[in-house]
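Recall the central idea of this unit: under ordinary conditions, the amino acid sequence of a chain determines the structure it adopts. In this exercise we apply that idea directly, starting from the sequence alone.
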Amino acid sequence: MMHLQPRKSDWPADRLAEARAVIADVAHHTDHLIRLACNVLVTHGDTATEREDARVLLVVINARRPIRAAQRQNGAGRAAR
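Accordingly, the structure predicted from this sequence is:
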């Protein structure tokens, strides 16, 4: 059986489709994967609106990071007591 490799020209379109799928189902993906998807769309999105929406979501996701780190530290401090 012959395994077909995607053509090199399909790669950008495939990555954009994957990034869009992650963003469309953001509640079921990790912040890390969402950041990757946003970065792909910010850089390679088809429209200015798509690129801007991805940039805004990236800002929101990055703003959550310090809160989560603080929550983990507080939780670890309580467990040590």
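Residues 15-80 form one domain.
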